[in-house]
């Protein structure tokens, strides 16, 4: 089945939300939706600086969530794995992506996920 819709991948800083300055992710997601886009938040489990209430707020604002394959299995560390399990247990994920940027990830994927 072909991918349908007007999806746009949204990514926040991995280490610190202050890098966004005055940009409010919830407002930006709602504005994207008003413009006819479906925002997909890349790897929300990796934004461990965000409280779960804020993660839920992003979801309520209309973002779909994409989990990185390997997050549950510990590829990004224990804190990310714990957060991924929290998000997963609440049924907030809509899709999974590979984040396949290098051989290290490919090797992990091959040895632990498949």
Would you give an account of this structure?
This protein has 114 residues and is an alpha/beta fold. The protein has one domain: Metal-dependent hydrolases (TIM Barrel, Alpha-Beta Barrel). The protein is built from 4 helices and 4 strands. It has a 4-stranded parallel beta sheet. Helix 1 (25-34) links the parallel strand 1 and strand 2. The protein starts with 6 loop residues before the first strand and ends with a helix. The mean pLDDT is 88.
Task: Look at the helices and sheets and give the structural class.
Answer: alpha/beta
Q: How large is the radius of gyration?
A: 14 Å
Using the coordinates shown, work out and report the CATH topology: TIM Barrel
Number of helices: 4
Q: State the domain count.
A: 1
How would a crystallographer describe the biggest sheet? 4 strands, parallel
Gap from first CA to last CA: 23 Å
**What would CATH call the architecture?**
Alpha-Beta Barrel
What would you give as the CATH superfamily? Answer: Metal-dependent hydrolases
Short description:
The chain has 114 residues and is α/β, with parallel strands linked by helices. The protein has one domain: Metal-dependent hydrolases (TIM Barrel, Alpha-Beta Barrel).
């Amino acid at each position: 089945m072909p991918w349908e819709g007007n999806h746009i991948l949204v990514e926040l800083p991995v280490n610190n939300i202050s890098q966004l300055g005055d940009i409010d992710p919830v407002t930006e997601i709602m504005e994207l939706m008003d413009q006819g886009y479906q925002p997909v938040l890349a790897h929300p489990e990796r934004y461990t600086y965000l409280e779960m209430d804020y993660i839920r707020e992003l979801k309520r604002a209309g973002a779909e969530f994409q989990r990185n394959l390997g997050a549950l299995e510990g590829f990004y560390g224990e804190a990310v794995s714990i957060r991924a399990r929290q998000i997963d247990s609440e049924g907030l994920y809509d899709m999974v992506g590979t984040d396949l940027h290098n051989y290290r990830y490919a090797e992990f994927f091959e040895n632990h996920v498949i």
